Amino acid sequence: QVFDDQGKDVTPRPLFQPDPSSVAPKQGKILVASDYSAVTGSGFLSSFSMQQTSGVTTSLAEQGGSCLLTSWNLSDVQVRREEVKEQLTSEELDRRVDIYLTETETFWIFDMPSAVMSVEAEDAGRVLERNKIYVDVCKNRVGNERFVERMMQTLNGAPKTKEVQCDKIITEDKGITVTSWDLYDSFNELEEEAASEAEGRRVTVVSSNISLVSGQRDEHTSSICDRDSTTSSVLETALLAKIHEEQEDHSEAILKSEKFHQDLFFMERILMENVFQPKLAVYRQLPVLIEPVATSNTGDRATAREEADPEKEEHEHEEQEEEEQKDVFIAPSVLSNLSKGPEELVPPSLELLWSYTCDLTNGRSVSSMAWNKLNPDLLAVGYGEFDFKEQKNGLVCCWSLKNPMWPERVFHCEHGVTALDFSAVSPNLLAVGMYSGIVAIYNVQSRNNAALLDSSESSDKHIGPVWQLKWVEQDRGTTGDDKGEILISISADGRITKWFIRKGLGCSDLMKIKRTVSEKKKTTGEKERKSEALISRQAPGMCFDFHPKDTNFYLAGTEEGLIHKCSCSYNEQFVETYRGHKGPVYKIAWNPFSTDMFLSCSADWSIILWHQESQKPILTFASTAAVVHDIVWSPKSVFIFVAVNESRVEIWDLSISTLDPLVIRFAAPKVKFTTVLFAKTTDCLLLGDSKGQVSVFELQNLGASHSNKV
């Protein structure tokens, strides 16, 4: 027994309780050898160990080398012995016993859900949609300023070593055999070069030495002649090598000189003028110079050939014109209005002169074009994609008529270029708007490709693509800063912003385009008004155009299909709202002659002619089921404008027909027209496409009306 400090019995009690119905043996019986041997080792030890665990070791007594057990402990041993002594009969051994294996209850120790799911599972669609959203979020995160990077604690993975086996490194030994005379000549070559330099500085004449060694010289004449010949050949080789090195150094200096680069620049200009002389003469409306035919002395055969060549050239020229006219279509209704008789009919057409393209622009989409305000031969072209999924780095090229094969200036941008324009006050400044919302200003006079100013560090910069920007001469304003030329931009974030140059590029908002509730929704109940308030309050802006006479007023087209007339004097509300388009308005253009009229084109396949005093459309032009990307008025006629669809360009003359375009030219297969621009001083048209080409066309037989009224 075990007692604690307070005298309480804390002896551990046995876990095994014997069966009370079992017969208790006589006390004091000694366990004999036969009984001990009959008990299995496992049974006896388990029982004995259990008794030891329960602390009943005090009941054992040592007597005569035997072990005396208690009464209840001995009975347990006898029961186990009897169970072991039971033997099975032969019948029981031969009897077939069926054993059934059943699965026990599963105990989950660790459960980790799988990150892989079968495509045929029920939730496969939902998981694929979540994965797609996560991929889009990861793509948008790169270069996006709306994602903020912050520090957080993460668990680093365990380091892992990886062995790489490579091919055996093979080494080779190479040698060369050199004769004694090679060593002698190489060694003397250095001494002879030093001696030749010393002989040029001093001249000595020693006649006595010559007389003393005259006899010896005769004996060794042959050996001396051989040595002199070897020495002269070595000197000649060294001299030629030195002259060659001097020529190489001199030629390299010439190639790197600025004078040589300038001469090459002028030579390139002269060659381009000679190659493109006929087409440039047509562009500038000058007579085409014909090169004189070289005379030959081969007799009558040459004369006959010279007489036959003009007919052949004329026939080839006619075939070429026929092929070009295949892409040009003229509506029958237009042909009937062109002239009174078929003998007087001269249909208008478009003739391709050349294309501005190079290796840098191949595969890029032309997004915008602008002429320089001072130099009419300088064209700025912006390259960028309009689709969000196809975005890549942007490019700006300044092309000159003097070299249509390579741009004069190239500016690489981090994001796609969506709009650009030259300044009128400072013609060397080129403003560029990008898909990321950045507005940058470049100096085309400098050969530095970096931007002079940009809005990347401005706190009020655009957070959406800059769809259009323009330098505007503004005479009236509330403050002195508003007077003069300002840069205006419109963006998909719903803001029309004016930019000013101070220490950097700052800005302020002219107008925040608010969403306009349609007339139908105004008559509905209160629930629809509440649902409308959940949408963003600002509508994305797509385009704008200032009034040609009063620059205090301008028009703004939105993604909702509405056109708002706004004023620079106040920015709280619109002056007028024109409703007519069912899709985003891509371009607005005031008529340069009739300043109360303006055109608009949209993604709803239509072109609408408006009057600023009327909120209803005057005329609607819809010639094809395609998006109209760009429109532009002719600088020489009040009736003529050009529209660009995805697959064709249309020339409209409202004085002839308001139903069908005057001329239609189709684009090449898999090519889409994106933008259009008239030449400043000539009857030519520039078309940009989705493959990076800016094609220059001549407008033939297109008579401009001198009337200035619609």
UniProtKB/TrEMBL annotation:
This is Dynein axonemal intermediate chain 4. WD repeats lie at residues 578-620. One of its GO terms (molecular function) is dynein light chain binding. Residues 1-23, 297-326 are annotated as: Disordered. Keywords: Cell projection, Cilium, Cytoplasm, Cytoskeleton, Flagellum, Repeat, WD repeat. Its main location: cytoplasm. It comes from Crypturellus soui. One of its GO terms (biological process) is cilium movement. One of its GO terms (cellular component) is axonemal dynein complex. The keyword Methyltransferase does not apply. It is found in: Cytoplasm, Cytoskeleton, Flagellum axoneme; Dynein axonemal particle.
